[in-house]
C-alpha cells in the first residue's frame, strides 16, 4: 500500500499546509481518510477520483470541508464523460444536519453510506475496520490491511479509549495518530485530543512499527511534537504534506 499525506494541521491551516487528509492507494483502489481544508489540492484530477472511497471519520469541518470540492469535481468530470463510476463516501450519521447537507448535495456524482464499527469492508485486496473513539461528535478510527501490512488512523480521540486503541492498532506497520497537544502546556490528561506523549504511549503499548504524528496546531513547530513523542517511543515521524510512504 502507498500512503500520501494530504494535510496535517488543525483547527485551521496556514500557507503550505492543509487540514487532515491521507490517501491510501493499493493497485487501482484508493481510500481517502478525511478531506480537510485544502487537502484536495494534492490530489490528481480526474485520476484520483476513479475507484475512490472516502471515509469522513467525523463531521468536524477541519476533517470534511473539502468533501464539497470532491463532490462537485465528480459531477463535472462525470458530465464530461471522464468519470465512469461515482465516488463512494462513508460518513457518520451525526450531527444529522451536516450528514443530510452532504448527502443531499445536488451537484455530485457519488454514493453514500453511513459509518459503523459493526461491519468490515472489503475493497480490492484491502480489509477496512472501524473503532469508535471518544470525541465530542461521533468519530471513528480506521484500520486498513491488505494481509501483508496494516495502517491504523486514529482520527481525533481522547486518551480515555487508550486500551481499546492499543488493541485496535496492535502490531500495525504504521500508526497515524493525532497529537494535537503538547504536554508542556499543562493540558489535563483526559482531553478531547491527545498529547504527543499519549500518542507515543499508544504506539509503544500497541507495539507498532512506526508512529506518524499529525493534527498539529499551526503555530507549533512540528519538531516539538516529535521530541515529546520520542521520550516514549523511538520510531517517530511527523506527517508532512506531499510526502509518500510505501507500507
CATH class membership = Alpha Beta
Strand order of the largest sheet: 6-5-4-3-2-1-14
Alpha-carbon distance between the two ends:
5 Å
What is the succession of H and E elements? EEEEHHEHEEEEEHEHEHEE
* Binned strand content: 25-35%
Examine the secondary-structure arrangement and name the CATH architecture.
4-Layer Sandwich
| Derived structural class | alpha/beta
Radius of gyration: 17 Å
Note the total helix count. Answer: 6
The CATH homologous superfamily corresponds to: Ribonuclease Z/Hydroxyacylglutathione hydrolase-like
Share in helix: 10-25%
Number of domains: 1
Task: Using brief descriptors, characterize the structure shown.
seven-stranded mixed β-sheet; globular; 14 strands; alpha/beta; 21% helix
Model description:
The protein is of the alpha/beta class and 247 residues long. The protein has one domain: Ribonuclease Z/Hydroxyacylglutathione hydrolase-like (Metallo-beta-lactamase, Chain A). It is 21% helix and 28% strand. It contains 6 helices and 14 strands. A hairpin with a 7-residue loop joins β8 and β9.
